Amino acid sequence: MPELPEVETTVRGLERVLAGRRIARIEARRPDLRRAMPVDLGQRLTGARVTRLWRRAKYGVIETDRGDSLVFHLGMSGHWRIDPTENGKHDHFVIETDDGRQLALNDARRFGSLDLVRADVLGEWPPFAALGPEPLELDARDLKKRLAGRTAAIKLLLLDQRIVAGLGNIYVCEALYRAGIHPGRTGGSVSLQRLTRLVASISEVLAEAIAAGGSTLRDFASPDGELGYFSKSFSVYDREGRPCGCGGTVRRVVQGGRSTFYCPRCQH
Ligand SMILES: [Zn+2]
What we know:
Elements: H1 4-18, E1 23-28, H2 41-45, E2 50-56, E3 59-64, E4 68-73, E5 79-82, E6 91-97, E7 102-106, E8 113-118, H3 126-129, H4 140-147, H5 154-159, H6 169-179, H7 192-214, E9 225-226, E10 251-255, E11 258-262
Helix pairs in contact: 1-7, 4-7, 6-7
The chain binds zinc ion.
């Protein structure tokens, strides 16, 4: 499942093909992904010039000079294919640029989404309106306020999109490990000093993953390049029973229906 670093890598890869280009043609090969695609995609995008690409939480945003934002979410299995040499069975949406490049949004499980939103009201668009701050722009004092009085586990609160936007299970586990904070600790009980360390840890784990993704971008210049998925190594995530550097053993518990991995010796 694509997490924030994969989405960031995808946006940077798409930028290389799309930035400043005019959209010559689009093709929606089915009416829906997780929900219906806008019926006027072709009318609003054909002939428009791409002015800017950016990411918010786990959404990618492609802005045009007509004031539209094409917003995509990769869901569970979505990815963009660059200049595919043949039509993929799950290539559901295709963009062709004025210089002959082609991008295909491939999504076998169709948990992803495509929406077209006016850029000037994007902040009030329901999926964006309730989002908390970006994890790479967190401020420890602001996070302290957001967690004040909260008795839920810090692990679960960090997965709440209203508190921090786009931080997924893997990076919450890794950041808590790096900050030495037990995932079961109540959110309101974590001191400002420890939250300061947590904010730094969140930035570090995401920046390292984004850098790992960036180093794979060169492959996307080739036909059939696939954006966004790359291998990463983790300290605790998916390492149940494996040794931690401290000599302890990584444990797995279930919180809110999802696995948490942590080291009981390093995190308290
Ligand atoms: Zn340890």
